[in-house]
User: Fold these one by one.
Assistant:
Number 1:
Amino acid sequence: MSNVVLTLGVLLAPWLVRRAGLLRTIPITVGGSLVFLVIMAFAHNIIIAALAFWMRAGLMMCSTPVTDKFCLELVPPDKRSVAHNILQMAWTGSWAVSTALGGWLIQKTGFTLPMVLTAAIYGIYLALFVLSFRHHPAMRHSGSVCPPTIPAQHD
């Protein structure tokens, strides 16, 4: 079921970008996933926890390619492969650290604390993202045609 939901998330991303705009898609999907993360943290019913897990996974998968596209548009074309590798290294490294820390916390305290901490970290990320790009033209876009995210600069 997780793979089906993840696939739907990836397929939903382009539609959502066309509908909400590139930069608005990220806070919509990350914010939505936070709701389901908090539900997972406090759910005492396995069915509710599983549904919340699948919804969160789909929403996060929706935002990943959109975030990658936006980040790579910030980098000159000749440096994008290096930038992509650095982004992937940061993602993989943070996942490795958080997996070890999360596992330790789950063993010591149960599932609630690690999920609440994760929600807080994603909340901080979301707030910083929105504050950083709130004046960007693409953040205000809500039509069917997306404006260019980053104007091309020529030296």
Number 2:
Amino acid sequence: MAPSSSTTPRPGWAPLVAVCLGTFMLLVDVSIVNVALPRMALDLDASFAGLQWVVDVYALALAALLLLVGSLSDVVGRRTTYLAGLGVFVAASLACGLAPSQGVLVTARAVQGIGAAGMFATTIALINAAYTGRARGAAFGIWGATNGAAAAAGPIVGGLLTQGLSWRWVFFVNVPIGLIAIAVSRRALSEPPRGGARRRIDWAGGAAFTVAAATATAALVRANEEGWTSATTLGLLGIGAVALASFLVIEARSPAPLLELSLLRRGPLAGVLVAALLYSAAAFSALIYASIWLQTVLGLSAIAAGLVTLPLSGLAFVVAAGAGRLLHDVAPRVVLGGGLALIGAGNLVQIGLGGGSGSARLLAGLAVVGIGVGAMSPILASAAMGAVPQERTGMAAGAVNTARQLGFALGIAVFGAVFSSSIAGRMATDAHTVASGGAQGVVAHAPDTARGRLDAAIHDAVASALGTTFLVAGLVGLLGAGLVLAMMRERRPAAAAEESFAT
């Protein structure tokens, strides 16, 4: 380890604790609400689209703002940005817990995502500045393990809090933990040197990217209720396409772009970003629909439903903790491609769900997914930074984190469309109610003579829909594996030299 300056002592592990506290908290909140959704739906009278937005708006705000906030942190300072993000996150968590309606909850979740962006955009730079050599490698390994385990541990923590206290406590718990993280961070973190002239902030590029991500996700969510050919869906898709094209034009001409497009043409960075996008979509996005099935159809408690994900979270943590050391000499393309293949295979294991199935079939598949998640998680950041020049490592880190969160947000929307439409194809009525966690209410309000048949039909429809969702997730993982292996293939020296000369 290296001291942060010539007059300060070695940092020890306090900076890593400060960063990992914030990272774990913000990533747990991506999935902690999964098992709480059925209770939220009852208390707040939420629709299926409303449930999607409770999860999706957080991931979307986090993904859409990471690049912009990362650029802003270059100007105002990484430590300052991290602490500000923590403060916003804690305040928004309190607002989420107190929310009296679906609209207030969704709005507070969006603000929570803004705070999370301030935290997540600066974590890699803070660790990179605090440690060197072997200590830096160990620090990134622990940080990667935290990443790999946090998203999958969310349902377990959420189940314990929802059943033991209330769904509101999945948000209230962030307040004391966040205050501790702020106190530790203020003492342990020092401001990394920025060096050189301060960068200009690409506000136009940030706005265009945010609009593109938001409208694309909104279109996928609205398509469930209004159809793919509705004016609203097509209009949102059109706006998203124009915003994306504008972002590419702005970045190509900006003197201080959020993402230098030339980096995507050099080396394997484009492949790493594809891996990050599809990794989050295939590994985590279908879990919220599995939670709805486990609780509202099979009747599991919130705790039991959360514990079903234990094979994923446990193996992800164990594998990630050792991945940096064991896979150090393995080419990143092999680790990332192989990890996506495992994630895809694990999802395919789960497609045989039947109307009378319990949760047992999920466990083996989630274990395979967990191995893939653990292998990929610590490699994504290091592969991104290793794919660009040293002076662009912050940009690469921000881009890969953006891809991860955007993949989760888009995955929820896409798999939600698959899940909902599959149920609608098997049930003439009440499909949206069942999809949003109201299966038990639908059965309870049916005539006594029809309840048995209706309950069996719901079991069959939801299990089949979930199997279809896992099938799509599995194909996404396998397709991603092939794309990553192809895109990250080492170029011939002559081609690389020719491109370098041309640029």
Number 3:
Amino acid sequence: MKIHGMLLVKNEADILEWSIADASQHLDFIYVLDNGSDDGTWELVQAIAATNSKVVPMGRELAPFSDALRSRIFNAFRDRAEEGDWWCRFDADEIYAENPRAKLAAVAPHHHVVFGQFLLYELTHAEAARLGGSDGPPPAISSANCPRFYLKAYLHAEARFFRHRPKLVWDLGSWPRHMGINSPAHVLIKHFRYRSPAQIQLRLNTRHAATAAGWPNFAHDQETSWAEKLRPIEEMYFDAHDGRYSGDFAAAATSQEPRLHVIVKRILHGAGIWP
């Protein structure tokens, strides 16, 4: 079983070395498509690839941002995958809190999709002061200086892995057509979307540009100043870096589908009508 990572990046130079090093412990390939970074991200990808054989720089795509850009990665490298392999949507601001390979190896054969369950790390006022202002490039983030507090109310799940099948078609949209049946298993992932004042401001500027170009799904990043993104510590859990996390994780089981949907999918996939 191999895991093929699809990494779409734009302006993530501050965390890229950490996230790729972390993912390289679990994924067999990391295919990288840059969506027009201007902070040195693409140059950093090439430098990392020179010493990490798992990293495959695909190129740069200057089209307006869309989740469907990941289909370019899938279609470019699908011939490398075999039955039993997995594809992984891997974002540069995500760090695995547990081993995804172990979770995927235990998934039942009739399940095709595994969700990531996220701990969303954000900045408190004290951490923002520690990481400096918004002037200059964002400081490099690693396990040594990353944000340590995550939101109590962000225990939700999103699709992150799907089984490879030769007949899968991914031409439009954020995922392949008839991707399959969701597994009840989740992979716990740390999501560092807000990392320092400088990075937050760069993110806001990048997201505003994508919104102006027509992408409708960045409503959560319409603030104009990084300071508007700071969170009071009372809303957060503290991560002691001991592998233990607080929260009602059962409340985040959003990968479960209606029973009738599962029955219909099992019939259509089992009969070969869907891949």
Number 4:
Amino acid sequence: MKADWRGDIVFSDSVAIFRGHVGPNKPHSHWASQLTIAVEGAVEFEAEDSGRRSSRAVYLSSKVRHQLFSGFVCSIYADPLSASRLETLGAGSTAGWAALSEDQLPAELAGLSASTELSPLLSSELLCVTPPSPPSSVEDRRFRRIARELAVQLRDGKEVDRNALARLVDLSPSRFSHWFVERSGIPFRSYKKWLKLRMAMDALLDGALPTSAAMAAGFSDLAHMSRAFSESFGLTYLDALHAWQHARRQ
């Protein structure tokens, strides 16, 4: 394990990609699904109670507890409400994670190297968020309306009111909470925290001071944001920021 996280980072609204050496991290889980591919050699990891393992790649579903130990890797994180071809990599696994061999990886990812341009991957067919087809059901439209409204309110610095969102889809607050989990597989409060972390990191990468970034994203203070970040990613927000700053200097 390297002394810190160093590498390249690119991201869009629904996908983030990190390529570099694994740095210090603790066992953690997050709402994004994750595909980690060894760029050189193998990736060493532990998922749930699997014990320490190594493989060409590992796919981790949302909320699977895991830790990376070593490797020069490329990790792709997908927003839990997005839909991409990455989801198929975990198909058939009852444990929520899957160690993958070379021939199980899509060709676009099996050939990743230290010099591969990462930005084009964000808009590739592989990672592109796919809208429902044929035309979505009434329930799909209701859910997409809530997801949009939630993101807009957080970006506008508003405190998200579950009761107000419930009224938008004609549900009681308690029924809304159950409905959100039924539609997404993710508790409403947890998904809201995930979006707030993304907002805070975006602000930090844009040059905001940590305290300002935490407040802009709706956290009560910097300590609150720091705890949430460490619990979700296994490393501190400063580790992530330093990796980004190092990548910008290359």
